[in-house]
């Protein structure tokens, strides 16, 4: 396992550990949010009091009694929501059944109701002194329902978000391990092949075939270039030079022309400055090879069309082909899936991939916004 992959897995495992912690929100964080909430409510109360006809009573909000009332409210709400959110989160993260929520909810509502009634007795408001016990009871119940629902909603939405993060982390871990395993298999295969022996053998065949058939010798030379590129770039995680990828793409087109006696109609157009630009290797080649595999390029009016445009750090790739009606598709699509996974890892949201298909034609469009 490479050092970079080991570090990546360590960070992802740490993220998973953090997500598993049942105390999802620290008291400091809850208190900070509660302080902001209390401050906003106090400012709104101050504004409404000022706008009333007896706005001169604004100073009553700054009395010792009023400040003490707000301080008690802040301390209670901070402790209340710290317990409520974390406890509900623990149940939601563990996927507990609904019946587990009932006693907890009743306890939470009872605690808030007791606090609310106690505050009314300690800090009675003139507007509430004339209220009947029924009205006080109903307002207490509704307030408890509202405050409990807020805590439950925060915990539930947080658990859903964390579940999505956890699934994404596990998926990326699995993908990275698959890539590592594929690279190990490739390196093992590569170790069994002596590149110098292979190149020397192909060069020998090229020299022998040159006097007999220029076309055959050119095909051998093209195959040698393809093998060299595959051996040099196939085991790398980093990007390859775009100009090398395009050169290899041209070799793939040339080999296919040799296979079909140059009866294939292919249009390749490259525009923009490719020097210095880099790309994940074998992405463009896989898309073009897919077109050769499934396409019909014998009609000069409907050639395989390939467009590569580089504009600064932006790459635009377009491949269009007519479908081969006689081709029976037994492909698993694993090659294209691996390409998309590699693009996800390397570029994230900085790329887009689009397929347009009907009964007769097939096209792919790839845009990379940050080479």
TrEMBL record:
| Pfam name, any one | His_kinase
Q: What is the native source organism of this protein? A: Sediminibacterium roseum
| Top-level taxon of the source organism | Bacteria
- Looking at the record, the residues that make up the Signal transduction histidine kinase internal region domain are 185-263
What is the protein's name according to its record?
Signal transduction histidine kinase internal region domain-containing protein
Answer yes or no on keyword Transmembrane. Answer: yes
The parts of the chain that form a coiled coil are 160-192
Q: Does the keyword Transcription apply?
A: no
User: InterPro entries given for it?
Assistant: Bact_2-comp_sensor_kinase (IPR050640), HATPase_C_sf (IPR036890), MFS_trans_sf (IPR036259), Sig_transdc_His_kin_internal (IPR010559)
Q: Which residues cross the membrane?
A: 30-52, 72-89, 101-123, 135-158
PANTHER family, sorted: SENSOR HISTIDINE KINASE YPDA
């Amino acid at each position: 396992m490479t050092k970079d992959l080991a570090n990546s897995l360590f960070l992802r495992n740490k993220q998973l550990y953090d997500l598993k912690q049942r105390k999802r929100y620290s008291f400091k964080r809850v208190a900070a949010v509660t302080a902001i909430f209390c401050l906003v409510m106090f400012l709104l109360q101050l504004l409404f009091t000022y706008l009333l006809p007896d706005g001169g009573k604004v100073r009553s909000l700054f009395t010792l009694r009023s400040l003490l009332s707000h301080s008690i409210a802040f301390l209670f709400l901070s402790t209340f929501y710290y317990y409520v959110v974390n406890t509900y989160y623990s149940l939601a993260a563990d996927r507990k059944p609904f019946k587990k929520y009932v006693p907890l909810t009743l306890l939470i509502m009872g605690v808030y109701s007791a606090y609310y009634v106690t505050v009314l007795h300690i800090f009675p408001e003139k507007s509430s002194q004339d209220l009947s016990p029924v009205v006080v009871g109903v307002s207490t119940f509704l307030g408890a329902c509202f405050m409990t629902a807020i805590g439950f909603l925060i915990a539930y939405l947080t658990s859903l978000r964390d579940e999505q993060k956890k699934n994404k982390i596990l998926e990326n871990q699995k993908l990275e391990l698959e890539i590592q395993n594929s690279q190990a298999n490739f390196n093992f295969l590569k170790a069994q092949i002596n590149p110098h022996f292979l190149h020397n053998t192909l060069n020998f065949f090229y020299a022998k075939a040159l006097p007999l058939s220029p076309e055959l010798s050119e095909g051998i030379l093209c195959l040698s270039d393809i093998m060299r590129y595959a051996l040099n770039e196939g085991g790398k995680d980093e990007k390859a030079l775009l100009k090398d990828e395009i050169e290899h793409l041209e070799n793939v087109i040339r080999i296919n022309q040799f296979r079909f006696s140059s009866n294939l109609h292919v249009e390749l157009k490259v525009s923009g400055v490719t020097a210095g630009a880099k790309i994940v290797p074998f992405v463009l080649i896989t898309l073009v090879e897919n077109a050769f595999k499934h396409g019909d390029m014998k009609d000069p009016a409907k050639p395989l069309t390939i467009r590569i445009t580089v504009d600064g750090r932006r790459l635009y790739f377009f491949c269009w082909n007519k479908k081969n009606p006689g081709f029976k598709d037994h492909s698993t699509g694993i090659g294209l899936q691996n390409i998309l996974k590699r693009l996800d890892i390397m570029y994230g949201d900085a790329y887009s991939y689009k397929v347009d298909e009907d009964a007769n034609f097939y096209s792919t469009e790839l845009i990379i916004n940050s080479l």
